[in-house]
Specification:
With about 325 residues, the chain is of the alpha+beta class. The protein contains 9 helices and 14 strands. The chain has a 6-stranded mixed beta sheet, with helices on one face. Strands 12-13-11-14 form a 4-stranded antiparallel beta sheet, with helices on both faces. The protein has a two-stranded parallel sheet with strand order 1-2. The two termini are about 55 Å apart.
Length: about 325
């Protein structure tokens, strides 16, 4: 736009880039130009006629993904109309620095915004399951083998599992190292640290409204700080679901639980007997630790049970010791999210 000395020189050079259509410059009207162009290069002077010639109305007529190169005066573009883009970029940068996923990362697979929105709660779930699983590892043995299981009524091709795998990797690696993991470097970081991550699908019958029914993370060939987290097959196992947009822990080892993955979690294995919830809750209340959720999973009445307690604050060592000293509690662990 603008075909004076500079504009004509740009056109001459652009012609050399277009070998498929190496023909002369085609002159078109303004409306056709903004509606069809992939690249718009501005070279006009700033006059009353060109002031803010690119504005909300003209931006709306442009193709999605159009590139604008302004080598004219700043006033030919309505800068306020571009503020939304600037804010979007700033928010994306802040999110990336926090390790959040970005739909427009240039060196990562492009993820449509609608897909990212749908998967967002499952992305949070994936990272927190990884974070929980690695904190359950004990005995000084290194994490090497991880299996992730996705259960869904959708076909595997309908879900970009790289997003979820990256966040599980982030959750596993970051609590035990100073490495910052994101979508771009997750696979490389896992390989560098000798992590072998395999993925499996469980295809469910039913409506594919939700992308996933549950996600399960298993760590093999390790000891556990909480023996009850070892499933019947011998791996540390945690499983979670998204309920009303909020990630929940729904399984530890072979025990079914249901606790929101917000704040932190205390897991207790105990003899299933009356009064246990009240006893533990009272100790936490006396120490001003707020309980957000509490759930008990058991193998049979009056046998063993696992109690999962969601807490807003980290209890003191003395508080945790008081819980551990309860005679009916056989083991417990505090897990920070």
């Amino acid at each position: 736009m603008g075909f004076g000395k500079v504009g004509s020189e740009v056109a001459r050079r652009a012609k050399g880039l277009d070998q498929a259509r190496a023909v002369g410059v085609e002159l078109v009207g303004f409306d056709e130009a903004i509606a069809t162009a992939d690249f718009i290069s501005l070279h006009m002077p700033l006059t009353p006629a060109t002031s803010k010639v690119l504005n909300d109305e003209t931006f709306a007529k442009m193709k999605k993904g159009v590139r604008i190169v302004n080598v004219a005066r700043g006033g030919v573009i309505d800068e306020e109309a571009l503020e939304g883009v600037a804010i979007e970029i700033a928010e994306a940068v802040i999110g990336a620095l926090k390790g959040e996923l970005a739909a427009t990362a240039v060196n990562a697979p492009m993820v449509p915004a609608e897909v990212l929105t749908e998967l967002k709660p499952f992305v949070v779930l994936a990272e927190k399951l990884g974070r929980l699983a690695v904190q359950l590892v004990g005995g000084g043995s290194g994490v090497k083998t991880i299996k992730v299981t996705y259960a869904s009524a959708r076909a595997p091709d309908d879900l970009n599992t790289r997003l979820l795998r990256a966040m599980i990797t982030k959750g596993i690696i970051e609590p035990i190292s100073d490495v910052f993991v994101n979508l771009v470097n997750a696979d490389f970081t896992a390989k560098q640290r000798g992590l072998r991550i395999t993925e499996e699908w469980v295809i469910l019958d039913g409506s594919p409204e939700s992308p996933l029914e549950y996600v399960q993370v298993q760590i093999a060939n390790v000891e556990s700080r909480f023996a009850s987290a070892i499933s019947d097959s011998g791996e540390i196992t945690v499983e979670g679901r998204v309920k009303d947009g909020i990630p929940h822990l729904t399984k530890v080892g072979s025990f079914e639980v249901d606790v929101s993955l917000e704040g932190s979690i205390i897991l207790c294995r105990q003899v299933d007997q009356p009064g246990m919830i009240g006893t533990v809750g009272s100790i936490l209340g006396e120490e001003n630790v707020n309980v957000s959720f509490m759930s008990v999973g058991r193998i049979a009445p009056r046998k063993q049970a696992v109690m999962a307690i969601g807490v807003d604050d980290q209890p003191s060592k003395e508080t945790l010791k008081r819980i551990g000293d309860i005679s009916a509690i056989e083991e417990f662990v505090f897990l920070k999210l």
